[in-house]
Amino acid sequence: MKIAILGGTGSIGEGFALRWAGEHEITVCSREADKAVKAADEYKDMLLDKGLSCSAIGGCTNDMGIRDSDVVVLSVPYNGVISLLKSLIPHFNDQIVISLVVPMKKNEWFEYTPPKQGSAALEIKDILPKTVKVVSAYHNISAKKLANLELRLDYDVVVCGDDEKAKRTVMKLTEEIKTLHPLDGGGLSSSYMIESLTPFLINLAIRNGFSDLGVKFV
Ligand SMILES: NC(=O)c1ccc[n+]([C@@H]2O[C@H](COP(=O)([O-])OP(=O)(O)OC[C@H]3O[C@@H](n4cnc5c(N)ncnc54)[C@H](OP(=O)(O)O)[C@@H]3O)[C@@H](O)[C@H]2O)c1
């Protein structure tokens, strides 16, 4: 599959590129082509240094990456993602778009700050063409842990989406990241529940002296 990671130069984008590069064609995307190419080269070197396989990994601007992809990962902060997507609308057709975007702010503690649609995923669905299939996942996975290939990621990943086939595709991509466990979280209207867990987990971690908490349902 061709996977474009928008904002793939950042914290959590790195982990997805490293974890999926063995099986898929990865495009690290950025607002700046040079920055994307540099990050893609670094990720490739990291994989080769570890003796891991790397089918194809390259870098380009966000618009070029979207055009040629089956799956687009939105690895961009909430405060930039909506205006970015509005500028990129002509480049979308029928891709699966994965939103891991969490709208939140820090006052004394972290707070979930959803838009009027109820969640980032629903707002993103609203602005993209109707042919795009938005799936929501990975909000509670730590960027640091995802990028650490030595770590066993024993976490559940709740996946929400209105298009069943697209949701299954994202669940399959999740299973490929050893040992994440995908769970069907229902339609996209449920995304707010899982997005809002992220600031809660950060607060729990701070209050209780942990770092990078994830979720496992038992
Ligand atoms: N970090 C985590 O542990 C984590 C966990 C779960 C979910 N998430 C979600 O994943 C998304 C990315 O998080 P992150 O920590 O990886 O973010 P980040 O490192 O701060 O940023 C990722 C990339 O987004 C691009 N970007 C930043 N500001 C932008 C703007 N105003 N407009 C357009 N592009 C912009 C940048 O790429 P270029 O400069 O190369 O364009 C940057 O490298 C967020 O929505 C976050 O809620 C993060």
Give me the secondary-structure category.
Answer: alpha/beta
How much is the average pLDDT? 97
The residue fraction in helices comes out at 25-40%
Number of strand segments: 10
Anisotropy-based shape: globular
Distance between the termini: 32 Å
CATH class: Alpha Beta
Which ranges are low-confidence, i.e. pLDDT below 50, for 5 or more consecutive residues? Answer: none
Small-molecule binders here are: NADP nicotinamide-adenine-dinucleotide phosphate
User: Strand order of the main beta sheet, please?
Assistant: 3-2-1-4-5-8-9-10
What is the CATH third-level topology name? Rossmann fold
Number of helices: 8
Domain tally:
1
Give the DSSP E fraction (strand runs of 2 or more residues).
15-25%
Radius of gyration: 16 Å
Major β-sheet, in short?
Answer: 8 strands, mixed
Fourth-tier CATH superfamily name: NAD(P)-binding Rossmann-like Domain
What is the second-level CATH architecture? Answer: 3-Layer(aba) Sandwich
> What is the H/E order?
EHEHEHEHEEEHEHEHEH
Description:
By secondary structure, the protein is α/β, with parallel strands linked by helices. The chain has a single domain, classed as NAD(P)-binding Rossmann-like Domain (Rossmann fold, 3-Layer(aba) Sandwich), CATH 3.40.50. It is 40% helix and 21% strand. It contains eight helices and ten strands. The strands form two sheets. The chain has an eight-stranded mixed β-sheet, sandwiched between helices. Strands 6-7 form a two-stranded antiparallel sheet. The model has no long low-confidence stretch (mean pLDDT 97). The site of NADP nicotinamide-adenine-dinucleotide phosphate (NAP) has 24 residues, from helix 1 and helix 4.
